[in-house]
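hi support,

uploading two proteins for the ticket. first:
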Amino acid sequence: MAKIYQHSGPHLFLLMWKASHAVTGYSHESIRAAGFGSLSDFAVLELLMHKGPQPVNVIGAKILLTSGSITTAVQRLEKRGLVRRERSGEDARVVLVHLTDAGHALIEPSFETHSADLNRLFDVLDESERTQFAALMRKIGQRAEQLEG
């Protein structure tokens, strides 16, 4: 059996995977504490808060949900009165998802709380380390996409 050496590709991947798992768990807990049972519901509302009305397929692509999953999430949010769907005035084939007043009232303070939780997580890094971390994450992500084809 091959030994995994410090700083080898397998070792670096393992470190990244473990950190990613821990960070994702922390993020999910923050979102649950903000009153969301579903990460996808939070992600849809957050995207609409920041980007305004969006087509369903664009939302799914941006938050990495399949077409079936995004449709289910939008329906769930619509039933709760947090979003509404309406046809685009420019192209009737396009259905845009809009935040309702109730959706805004829920996501804005929830996002502020979640944002503070994430800032607390990354407070362990100074500004120089944050800059380096961001550059390294972009670089490795781009390399993976390049090698994937």
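and the second one:
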Amino acid sequence: MNERLAKYIARSGVCSRRDAEKYILEQRISVNGEIVKTPAFNVKDGDIVLFDGEKLPEIEATKLFIYYKPVGLVTTHKDDKGRQTVFETLPPEIGRVLSVGRLDLNSEGLLLLTNNGGLARELELPANAWSRRYRVRVHGKIDEAKLKEIENGVTIDGVRYGKLSLVLDSQNGTNAWLTVTLNEGKNREIRKLMKFAGLEVARLIRVSYGPFQLGNLKKGELKQVPQKVLKEQLGGRFEC
């Protein structure tokens, strides 16, 4: 082994690669008893890496889980408002995992979890263009011209939202279901876009992330993606 220290830390599942780089700059990482001060540092087999004086967990084979996040959970390991987190609901036998991106408190559906921080970062990067598909229940009067405008990309409060796919699945009076597919999910993007169209989001469910599907999982359920599928779908990213 000869790899960047931040990548090695991320593969241990302690944190993402970006956070590992930050912790290195904060001089919280030592290798063979010496504090490392720059992320431009490689480690090799036999090196002893400590984080805040503690040994890193043993690096396991990369695992990826699909979890149906219910409404009311926050996607963070610790919440300063005392709200229940996704990670408090997970079975202890899956070990420490990180989320791939987030779903906000009032959103539900597919959340990817992995023990490999490098992989989490790869799957989050906008440059990799992993599409996310959502079912969205809205309340209000449908303005098809506004929906078309959203599809082509709009600027709201100085923030540019790119092109996306938007399909009106069904409509019953002032209630409707839409399917929205986007490649880069900015903070509360769908809710802001629907508000722009004069619509109130009543329910927001993520049903897919790249090739990974929510399928028939029920709220709070979890399933591991088979190793064979991981290798087929992720290719070189599998070894992040």
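thanks. also noticed: DSSP finds six helices and 17 strands in the chain.
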